[in-house]
Amino acid sequence: MTPNTPASDRNPVLLSAMHWKEVKDREFDLVVLPWGATEPHNLHLPFGTDIIESEVIAERSARYAADRGTRIAVLPTIPYGVNTGQMDLRLTISVNPSTQLSILRDIVESLSGQGIRRLVILNSHGGNDFRPAIRELKPRFPRMFLGLINWYQMLDQRRYFTARDDHAGEMETSILLAVAPSLVLPLNEAGEGTERPFRLKALRERWLWTPRAWSRATEDTGVGNPKNARAENGERFLADLTAAIGDAFVELAAADPEELYE
Ligand SMILES: [Zn+2]
User: 122: CA distance to ligand 1 center in Å?
Assistant: First the structure.
């Protein structure tokens, strides 16, 4: 919930700021579900980093689409993600992939009975792998568009940042400096986010995959150096990102979910 959403906003996009008065007679072309995680982010970013990012990106993208006539609602953000590789890190909260599927199924079931035909998950967290869940749900809800955006995979980071960010590095730190600067500790208190390489060659080359044991894989829980993070770069990244997602929302809202091919 963005605390500065004005109460007088008669065209809100966040469901948590809407009232039944506005919703009961209103049609929605598209519903967005932001999904985060609750986990440490190096020494300097808050546990809620992924929650904040998914909500801000969903809200800005939805606002962009709403300004262009799209009837859209952003659901409250799900704060817990799959963190099975970080469960030994204090106050990390992990939900299993099967639990995540159950939550998603219940949300899709709620919406499908209300005539909603398009749902997009806006995901912030690499451990949240929604594709198998969507593949499993799709045959049960064949008339509904079920889509996924992993926003962190969309843009070429090199156009905005000096160091590649995997977790709590320059990209995430720049975004938080742009949208929630009071929650970012001074960067000289951050770790360098150095990842310890695997001993096995195939794992280093990443064609043999196994989940990372996070407390062994990095010193400070970060992967990617945050030291050059700047609010203005985060803002520039967010502007391009949310315009691209917003354009996709506009196009999707106008499309027939059963006629997606040329
Ligand atoms: Zn993150």
Answer: 13
